[in-house]
Amino acid sequence: MSSAPKHDVFQAIADPTRRRLLQLLADQELPVTVISGHFPMSRTAVSKHLNILAEAGLVKERKIGRERRYRMETEPLQELRRWLSYYDRYWDNKMAALQKFVESGSGDDPSDPTGPSAPKAAE
């Protein structure tokens, strides 16, 4: 029986450093020594971030000799994608409302001197 992960996908990607790590590992498998060269922090700090990503299932590690190599796993990102797709409808609704507003001709016409943005006469 396996225990639940210590960190979920949302917690893991909440940190900008971990998001950058995922971008770095998206197309390649790298050892921690190479990975840490891309960050202004110690190898130990990078390893801690990698461990959090691994606990969330976003990174897999394999040992080759004395070296540990890391690669990104995309399957856990599907949970994030499903969650975000639920909110796509709100974005789509806002874009549709904006399109309707723009196409209706409502709003501020800069060529109309009496429009809402026209300078007001001093009182």
From TrEMBL:
Which UniProt keywords are listed? DNA-binding, Transcription, Transcription regulation
Q: Where is the HTH arsR-type domain?
A: 1-92
Query: Region (Disordered) spans which residues?
Result: 102-123
Family annotation (Pfam families): HTH_5
Q: Which GO terms describe its molecular function?
A: DNA binding; DNA-binding transcription factor activity
**Membrane spanning residue stretches:** none
> Would you say which domain of life the source belongs to?
Bacteria
What name has this protein been given in UniProt?
ArsR family transcriptional regulator
